[in-house]
Amino acid sequence: MNYIIGAFKPACHVTVTFSDEKSRKKVALKKEDGQTVMVPLFRSLETISGRVSVEPVLGKKVEHNGIKMELLGQIEMYLDRGNFYDFTSLVRELDIAGEIYERKTFPFEFSNVEMPYETYNGLNVRLRYVLKVTINRGYGGSVVQYQDFVVHNYTPTPTINSSIKMEVGIEDCLHIEFEYNKSKYHLKDIILGKIYFLLVRIKIKNMDLEIRRRESTGSGSSTHVETETLAKFELMDGTPVRGESIPIRLFLSPYELTPTYQNINNKFSVKYFLNLVLVDEEDRRYFKQQEITLYRLADSARQGETL
Amino acid sequence: MVIVNGMEDEDKWLAEGIAGIQHNAVCLHRALDSDNLRDALKYAAQLLSELRTSRLSPHKYYELYMRAFDEMRRLEIFFKEEDRHGCSVVDLHELVQHAGNVLPRLYLLCTVGSVYIKSKEALAKDVLKDLVEMCRAVQHPVRGLFLRSYLAQISRDKLPDIGSEFEGEGDTVMDAVEFVLQNFTEMNKLWVRMQHQGPFIEKQKLEKERNELRDLVGKNLHVISQIEGVDLDIYRDTVLPKVLEQIINCKDELAQYYLMDCMIQVFPDEYHLKTLETLLGACPQLLPTVDLKTVLSQLMERLSNYASSNPELLPEFLQVEAFSKLSNAIGKVIAAQVDMPIVGTFTLYVSLLTFTLRVHPDQLDYVDQVLGSCVKKLSGKPKAEVSKATKQVIALLSAPLDKYDDIVRALTLSNYPRVMDHLDSGPNKVMAMVIINSIMKNKTCVSTSDKVEVLFELIKGLLKDLDGASTEELDDEDFNEEQNSVACLMHMLYNDDPEEMLKIICTVWKHVVVGGSRRLPFTVPPLVFSALKLVRRVQSQDGDVTDEESPATPRKIFQLLSQIIDALSAVPAPELALRLYLQCAEAANDCELEPVAYDLFTQAFVLYEEEIVDSKAQVVAIHLIIGTLQRMHVFGVENRDTLTHKATGYSAKLLKKPDQCRAVYACSHLFWIDDQDSNKDGERVLLCLKRSLRIANAAQQMSNVTRGISGPVTLFVEILNKYIYFFEKGNPQISPSAIQDLIELIKTELQSDGITLPWSPALDPFLTSTLRYIKFQKQKGGAMGEKYGAIKL
In chain A, N or C terminus with fewer CB closer than 10 Å? Predict the structure, then answer.
């Protein structure tokens, strides 16, 4: 469990435990220090309950002005000097001012908490959920303890999910038509499709399909956009001729993807693109980028899909 | 220099590739040993990445491929054992597809696919179909070909064939066929495309490399042919049309040739026969440069082998009209391939002809049709061009001869001579010789004048100087051999019916007579003897021929004979003519045709007088005349007198004394014919002998004067022998004393020879044996002994 590493020696140990700690699914979360920890996973409108135990350091008493617990949803913008914006903040008083001589536990419960946004760790922005325990002390500083948890929200299978079909080209040089079977993919989905070569006058060396994530933070003139390539998947090796069609089958599961986020709390957006890249023998690149929507599908909703 | 470096570089790259594979293989084995699936997949993918190289020629790439292939087999075994890696085949199937690079990904996918089918968790056809589709992602010809050939390899034992464990439940033979066909089509496309991959200057190298890869493509056809379930229906309705479509559409010379050949080789002959039209229909649609003659020749050879090993199938060949289809196809191919050299054209015709002869030996009209097509093709072509295909044309013309063992059948082919007409004089002669040799070898008898006419028309190259060939310098030896062959041939012409035989002779004569002076000495004698044979046959058949209406009377034949022999005068060949006249005269004698015989003798004498000037020839001729005349019994006294008188006269007029002497004593026989009592004139015999003695004497003296010695007494001994002969025969004019005198004379001659040595019998063996003979007769006793008694030695 977590220890508070304060400037002074800690007066007590604070431990947070969830009531369904054993049965609840845990997912990996990357901390600021680069370590990965396993933390419980929640959905919006779930009840988050458990207990906090406070254990004074041997033989000492803890004098305090009250103990409270907060559930915080924070957005941290790295470019904004690490400022936090709390979009959710719930408080529970655990204890009134007093003294603690020995280990004492306090139950807590946040019922049906609305957590509309998912936990997200991006390049320039972080969205986190945390339980914050504060033991207020007049002097010697307060004792603060954080407990992270992760929120994933599931989306039902979209009712409208048309394929993406497009013809692109450079006049008298290269004409292709590509087709992705859907425009919306869940995170464990498979992208199927085909690329038709309608006209090939250049010697193509290979063709890749990239998954790119565009993260935009801020708004207005201060909008900052960062793009990273999460997947580079070779689709074709060699020079096709007119009339060839190349199959696409890309499994999304191996990649660390998130759903598409649209204007989260007016702070940031995350979009995904499929980038089709053709490279010719002189290493010139020809590409076409196409946005896709990613969404999170409940595991139970996924059918046994093969191929 | 560049190339050398290129080669060295390639070896280096190959070595690097192999090292890469080996390194990853070690890691892979370690992962497999510890049942570590994730590592196994990682190292397998790295290992396979070595196959992504573009720097190796197909040959070297193959080496790399084989190494990777071996590793994949290990991996496949590991994949099969689920309890080792704990991953279901379905999950495994997804897992391998996470590989980022397409080539390793597809090799792995094929490997898992193989396990997948084996596990029967999915239909074989679905897995196969998916694999063959996914492999499209590799468009690089060499890499693609090897990948697909890997696919073909791992799928071979997993096709849903009849009797296979993967058949049934929605998996049918058709699925197997479609899978292989698709893989074939894709491979062929890649293969064809290879030629466009490099710079133009490397075209030759590329072609060579492509050739090295062709069996990868052809293997697919072989696989289809091995599928049990591919019966005639599937072959005809699916396999053949699809494959042909691919062959035609790929528009590549190398591929079209190789694949057509492949089709013909891998599928059963029965299928070819039943789908002949479709198969042949494709031929004219191929590129004009494709070597179709080889392809079609192969096909025809196979079909004819098929037919000859299964004679019961012949009706089937007829039913499908194999011949006309082939013939049509060849016509179309020739029309389509305008640039086909004439050699090619004729190779095709030779094949077709061979096929026809083997499959339909009875259908002479087929053979004639083939020849007819050749004539059409040949007409209008300059001989110079035709001469390039001489070998083929000769093969074409020889084929029927070889087949039929009987030239007579070939003679009924109306187009046969027309083809021959297109040959240059040289090859024409060669062909004529082939024909003659065929006749001689098979001892074929040509029995009608019509056939003889055709035959001689065929070999006319030997019989006369063809246009434009007269200036040609002929090798004497060859010429003699040719003419001897013609002479031999004449003895093969025979018909029991004298009338027809005469016609044959006339026909031959018609052809022979234009042969010119060089040929006649060869051709006339056999003809003459052939005619004489006929004369004797007619004679023996019906004792005396009274039917003057019959064309084949000896008299008429003799007329022809004198005509024939007369032709020799133009050569001139008087000695030969003389001999032939004498032969004829003898025959006439046997036929009791006095005037004819007399006339022939006259001819002989005229020749002797006018044409034979060489003294040696004269000696020979006069002896022949004497010999023949001696045997003649047909002449009346008057004629006989005239002729004998002439002969004796000529004998005495020979140039050399010894010749004179011998001729004269030979003449003595003309007056003493043993079996004709009417012809025994002892006096004239003695006259001749005395005359010859005188000449011998004169000769002796002459040599005495000119050379100082009188020479041997041979002539005397010879005359002595004649004396003895007639003495024994009972010529009253020859008395023992005459013989004794002669012996004395010889002895004196010997002693006066100037040789001081005493005479010894050993000096003259001839004389010695003659004397010994007389002694022997004396001692023998009996009537003859008594006769000889009067002679004292």
Answer: N
Compute the 3-state secondary structure of chain A and give helix, strand, coil in percent, each to the nearest 5: 5, 60, 40
Residues A208-235 as b/e (b if ≥16 CB within 10 A, e otherwise) read: bbbbbbbbbbbeeeeebeeeeeebebbb
Local structure of residue B161 (DSSP, 8 states): -
The single-letter DSSP state of residue A228 is E
Instruction: Identify the burial level of A262 via C-beta atoms within 10 angstroms of its C-beta, where 0-12 means exposed, 13-18 middle and 19 or more buried.
Output: exposed
Minimal-distance CA residue of chain A relative to B133: A247
B136 and A232 within 8 Å at the Cβ level: the answer is: no
Helix (H, G, I), strand (E, B) or coil at B364: helix
Is the peptide bond prior to B572 cis by the omega test (within 30 degrees of 0)? yes
B134 contacts A246? CB cut-off 8 A: no
- With CA atoms as reference, report the closest residue to B534 among B603, B587, B594: B587
The pair of structure tokens assigned to B102 is 């397409």
Decide if B635 contacts B586 (C-beta within 8 A).
no
CB of B505 closer than 8 Å to CB of B446: no
Q: Give me the phi and psi of A79, to 5 degrees please.
A: -80, -15
- Closest among B563, B636, B647, B627 to B598, alpha carbons compared: B636
The residues in B 89-108 lying below 8 A from A, measured between CB atoms, are 90, 93-94, 97-98, 100-103, 105
Q: How many helices (H) and strands (E) does chain A have?
A: 0, 20
Q: What is the pLDDT of residue A307?
A: 41
This model's pTM is above 0.95? no
Q: Helix or strand or coil: residue B710? A: coil
Q: Give ipTM to 2 decimals.
A: 0.89
Q: State how beta strands A285-295 and A184-186 pair.
A: parallel
Q: Are B504 and B454 in contact (CB under 8 A)?
A: no
Q: How far is CA B563 from CA B493, B506, B592, in A?
A: 20, 11, 20
Q: What is the mean pLDDT of residues A172-185?
A: 94
- Which pLDDT score, from 0 to 100, does residue A45 have? 93
With 0-12 / 13-18 / 19 or more C-beta atoms within 10 angstroms meaning exposed / middle / buried, residue B479 is middle
Confidence (pLDDT) at B542: 62
In this complex, is the C-beta atom of B121 within 8 Å of any C-beta atom belonging to chain A? no
Closest CA to B300 of B338, B332, B269: B269
State whether residue B380 is helix, strand or coil: coil
Rounded CA gap, A68 and A108, in Å? 10
Structure tokens at B73: 């087999």
Q: How far is CA B370 from CA A131, A132, B242, B323, in A?
A: 100, 103, 32, 10
Which stretches of chain B score pLDDT less than 50?
Answer: 1-4, 471, 545, 756-757
CA A194 to chain B, closest CA, distance in angstroms equals 10
The distance of A219 to chain B (nearest Cα, Å) reads 36
Q: Is the pLDDT of residue A304 over 90?
A: no
| Separation between Cα atoms, residue B71 and residue B207, nearest integer Å | 31
